[in-house]
Every structure is written in structure tokens, then in C-alpha cells.
Amino acid sequence: MNGIIDAGGGLRGIYGAGVLDYCLDKGIKFDYCIGVSAGSANMASFLAGQKERNCKYYMEYSFRKKYMGFDNMLHTGSYLNLDYIYGELSAKDGENPLDFDAFSRSESIMKVVALNAETGETIYFDKSDMSQDNYDILKASSCIPVFCEPYTVKGVPCFDGGLADPVPVEKAFADGCGKVVVVLTKPRDFIRKQKSDARLARILKHKYPKAAESLMLRYKKYNSEVALAKKYESAGKAVIIAPDNCCGMKTLTKDKKRLEEMYAKGYKDAEAITPFLKP
Fold first, then answer.
1. Which percentage of the chain shows pLDDT scores above 90?
2. For residues 195 and 188, what is the distance between their CA atoms, to the nearest angstrom?
3. Distance between CA 124 and CA 159 in Å, rounded?
4. Is the dihedral of CA 210, 211, 214, 215 positive or negative?
5. Which of 14, 43, 79, 266 could form a disulfide with 58 if both were Cys (CB 3.0 to 4.6 A apart)?
6. 106 pLDDT exceeds 90?
7. CA distance readout (Å), 235 to 25, 227, 228, 238
């Protein structure tokens, strides 16, 4: 069983969108797809066969005040308007709907990673947790702590999957994958530091202490999981697709030129997938 992981990374996720669009162009399919944060939305469009759909979200919609901004935070407590992104825009009668019928017909397994904000436990949602115009699991996986209030799914408040299982390599192999493509949105040798997470964790701990603990440990999880991916890569069981640089982009950087560069990098770097998947 061949698998693919999209680790997301806010607007840097356009790199993963480029990778997946290359796969659509070349007819490359995966038996198992697991998405984290923005990577989960990329995966949904990929399984629906909607090339370049996600590009509009990164390149066009993200510049709208209703999509993200401090006005949203002032009125709702969340910088990202997840109901607008994965509801109003993505619904059947929305501006850029997910083709849910095509998504449902896909035979691929899909997993979406999120964090239980109250317990700090990892949640792995799947396709059965989605239905037409109910894309709450994508909202949950993309819910950045401190910048957003937790998003509730089936009574469980959730935060971004990057706090729980940022690069779910072990999960993919445990679920039966024989080969895995690992898509990162930072360079493969990037070492995550605790410093920036620690500042946010101090704010978060007052309301969600367990989630704050997960945020404090994210750097360790990320670094160890990338190291594990490299071990699998050395054994011929994984390939890491990652940009040589981030084009100056951080998680919420809105810059069209840089976004275009990241997408192009993802599309180009995805060329390594074809030889890797050959028997």
C-alpha cells in the first residue's frame, strides 16, 4: 500500500498543493492519504481530482478580510474564519465547492489529524467523519491555537493537527503502508525550536493546559518524526519532498510572488515521486 503525508504549514501549504497537482497531472494515486492542518484540505481536493482548486484558497481567498485578519479575531476570537473557508466557500453552492461526490468515490483511505484541546490526545478522523457540506474535520485540523478558538467536532474541542502528530510517518506505516511520500513545507534539514511555541503556550495554558503542553513539545515531535522519515528514506521505504527554502514565508505570510514560488517548487520537486514508487 502506497501512502502520502501532507504535513501542511498554513499558507506554506501551497507547496503541498503543487506536489499533489503534479500527481493529478501524472495520474499518480495513493492508497492511503493523511493530512495535517492545511495538508488535510489539500488531500480532500486531491482525492476529489480538483487540480488547482486549493491554489485559489492560497493565492486569492486568503487576501480577503473575511478569510483571515484581526477583524475576525475581534469579532469571533479567531484570526482564521474556518467556517468561511471550509463552509461558505467550500459548500456545494459556494464559490469554490469541494466535489464531494468525486471525493466519496475515491477508494483511497484518508486520515485527518487533530488534537483534543482538553486532553491533549491525538485524534485521527477519516472520510466517514465527512459528509456533503460538513467539512468540520478540516476546520479542526487547521485550527491554529491562540490565533483561533478551538473548533468543536462531535462535542470535542480541537486544535491544529500539527500539535498532535506533525509528520505522521509512524501512523502511516502502522496503518499498513509499504512506501510513503512525506511532503514537508520546510527544508528537510530544518530543526524546529521551542522558542516561538513557548510564547504561545504561555497564553494557551490558562484555558487549555493540556493543549499548551502539546504545543511546548511540538518541536520535539516534529524533529523526531522528520528524523524517522529520513531513516525510512535510507531504507527505501520513504521519500521526503521538501522545499530547498521557504521563499521567506512563515505560516500566515500573504505574498503572491512567494506563494507562486512555493507552488512551483512543490510541482517541480514532486518529480521525485515517480521513480520512488516504481516497483
1. 94
2. 20
3. 12
4. negative
5. 14
6. yes
7. 28, 13, 11, 8
What pLDDT is recorded for position 217? 97
Cα–Cα distance between 38 and 162 in angstroms, integer? 10
**Phi/psi of residue 192, each to 5°?**
-75, 140
CA-CA distances (angstroms) from residue 194 to 122, 143, 175? 20, 19, 30
Q: Please name the residues in contact with 274: beta carbons below 8 A apart, sequence gap of 6 or more.
A: 26, 28
- At position 71, the amino acid (one-letter code) is D
HEC secondary structure over 111-142: EEEEEECCCCCEEEEEHHHCECCECHHHHHHC
In the chain, what is the straight-line distance between the N-terminal and C-terminal CA atoms, in Å? Answer: 12
Residues in the chain: 279
Distance CA 184, CA 98 (A): 24
- The amino acid present at 237, given as its one-letter code, is K
Distance CA 193, CA 35 (A): 23
Distances, alpha carbon 218 to alpha carbons 17, 164, 191, 225, in Å: 23, 8, 12, 10
> pLDDT tens, 233-245?
999 999 999 999 9
Instruction: Give the max Cα distance, the chain.
Output: 54
Share of the chain above pLDDT 70, in %: 100
Residue 252 corresponds to which cell in the numbers above?
500566515
Cβ atoms within 10 A of the Cβ of 56, count?
14
* Whole-angstrom Cα Rg for the chain: 17
Instruction: For residue 35, give the C-alpha cell.
Output: 493530512
What is the distance between the alpha carbons of residues 47 and 108, in angstroms, rounded to a whole number?
A: 8
pLDDT, position 232: 98
Three cell numbers written together for 100: 464531494
C-alpha cell, 23: 500527481
